[in-house]
Amino acid sequence: MASLARIAFSRALRPASSARLSPAWAARRTYSTPFNGTTGSSQQSARNLAAEALAQKTGHTPTQPTAPKGKNKPSKIEKTPTSPAVYALYALLGITTVGLAYNVGCPYPDEEGIEDAKKHPDESFFAGYIRRAEERYHAARDKMANPIWDKLLPDPLPAPYQQPYTLVINLDNTLIHSTWDKDHGWRVAKRPGAEYFLAYLFQHYEIVIFTTQTADTAMRILEKLDPYQYAPYRLYRESTRYIDGKHVKDLSHLNRDLSKVIIMDSNPDAYALQPENSIAMKPWTGDASDTELVGMIPFLETLALTEVDDVRIPLAKFRGKNIPVEFAKWEEDLKEQMRLQWEEEQKSKKGKGFGIFRVGGQQQEQPPVPMFEMQRQQFQEHFMRTHKAVEEEAAENLKRQKELESKLKSMKISVWDIMTKGGPDPAALAALAAETDAPAEKAPQAAEAKP
Amino acid sequence: MPRSSDHSRDPCPYVIFSDLGASFAMGAIGGGVWYGIKGAKNSPRGERFPGALVSLKARAPVLGGNFAVWGGLFSTFDCGMKGIRQKEDPWNSIAAGFFTGGVLAARGGPKVAITSAAIGGVFLAVIEGLGIVFTRAFADQNRPMMPQLPDIAPPASQ
């Protein structure tokens, strides 16, 4: 085969004259290539021959073999050398990762660490690392699930202001109902009697509105529902406890005595942790003829007026029953008992003849009513008389506050004032406040001057 | 009662349109700024404003469209997950991000699709986590305060 190659090669180098003798044959240069039949060393010798011929023709020997093609082809793009900044960044990343990894499981600092070491004395560093990493993870997760503050409400107010009992009431489907439709978007309906409920029970309870809605939506609803702050404390979603995908209202964080707390909610998940303090309400879906909320008022009012020691006992008594109806029945039974007792007493009194033994000197014409009923009547009358005036005054205050706020916004606050006095000029603030109060003072003066 | 408890967004099927539109707006405005500046930078002095306009007219709607596709798909999967699981969770959003990333890269084959899905899922997990952290961080201003005593009248029962 190699000989064939040599023959073919020498034929190709024949001078032109011989080519003229047999032009077609000479024109067909049949080089034997490595691809039609030759192997290994013969390829190499063929390459050497080719290199020699090329060297003869071009006049210099090629020193480099041809560059590899295909996958191994070198890129024409010049690689810039990596700058030290890249190495620095990688180093920083490495250090951060190592530091984080250490901090995840490192021994607790200071006193905690000493206590921890005492609890687990014979523990290898690795086992301790795993345990502390798990503890830290669970602590972080719990922190997200727990109510945001340990004490959700501030401490009880001093003596004449603080009510002995606390009523925690839900917003969605208990006091309001929200619907969405394409034309109006979200709309919120007030339950019939909701505002009256809050205003009336404000006399007996410290009302807390606890909702699983977030603050940004719920605050706007509450501004309209309860503008006079009959429910001064409002708790939103971040105050709930997140258990198993449900928002639970944990009353133990309320900073109040649990024997004096009632929770009214239409969602059983809400009072899952303290069901004994709960009044279950049926969800309100927008029915305008609903009377359940207002029907609860006698029961709640009587609870407060009779000054029960532990609200959970009467709540347990009425659990599972329709409270407005059952409580009315209970009251009727009680009155019936008292009437029977009084009638017996009357009969026995008539039997005795001595006038000096008649207590009180007067014979009662009517059967006695329970004390709480008399008190209730008093409260209702007081409410009817004063409620309107109280609300008007509250509305005035609200209006004045809003005026002040809007004036504050439009007031020019100079940077100098902020730097030197830490805010707007106090004199200007006082002048503004006086200005908004002055018209109110002028009005009663004008009213007095008229008659 | 519409199932969604989040009163700041429309309930589920309708929110897809809102999200589509919102994503488009984000992409178009962001793209307008980006491509406008880029076009201005790459234009000769004196022709910067027309150059910026041409660049953003050509490219900003495209970016808006890409964002809209991402947002619309995400919202669709989110509503789908809510409907299937009947729960309102951050996990719905994370799964929706996962599926969106996967679907949008599906042309490149399973390996590329899963990588993209994982990236989408992680991205959404970060967003949800940050959302929860920020809600709790800003919630401190809603803490119930003791009302000032002279302002409230003692209730009638005392």
UniProtKB/TrEMBL annotation, chain A:
A Pfam family this chain is assigned to: NIF
UniProt-annotated stretches for the region Disordered: 57-79, 432-451
InterPro entries: FCP1_dom, HAD-like_sf, HAD_sf, TIM50
Chief location bin: mitochondrion
Domain FCP1 homology: 160-303
Protein topology in the membrane: Single-pass membrane protein
Membrane listed as a keyword: yes
Gene Ontology BP terms: protein transport
Cellular compartments annotated: Mitochondrion inner membrane
Gene Ontology, cellular component aspect: TIM23 mitochondrial import inner membrane translocase complex
TM ranges: none
Top-level taxon of origin: Eukaryota
SUPFAM superfamilies (UniProt xref): HAD-like (SSF56784)
Keyword Signal in annotation: no
Stated role: Essential component of the TIM23 complex, a complex that mediates the translocation of transit peptide-containing proteins across the mitochondrial inner membrane.
Family designation: Belongs to the TIM50 family.
Subunit: Component of the TIM23 complex.
Protein name: Mitochondrial import inner membrane translocase subunit TIM50
UniProt gene name: TIM50
Automatic annotation (TrEMBL), chain B:
GO function terms (MF aspect): protein transmembrane transporter activity
Primary localization class, coarse: mitochondrion
Pfam families: Tim17
Top-level taxonomic group: Eukaryota
Keyword Lyase: no
Membrane-spanning residues: 20-37, 91-108, 114-139
Membrane disposition: Multi-pass membrane protein
Gene Ontology CC annotations of this record: TIM23 mitochondrial import inner membrane translocase complex
Location of the protein in the cell: Mitochondrion inner membrane
GO biological process: protein import into mitochondrial matrix
Keywords recorded for this protein, A-Z: Membrane, Mitochondrion, Mitochondrion inner membrane, Protein transport, Translocation, Transmembrane, Transmembrane helix, Transport
Protein family according to the UniProt entry: Belongs to the Tim17/Tim22/Tim23 family.
Protein name listed in UniProt: Translocase of the inner membrane
Taxonomic source organism: Dissophora globulifera
Gene this chain is encoded by: TIM17
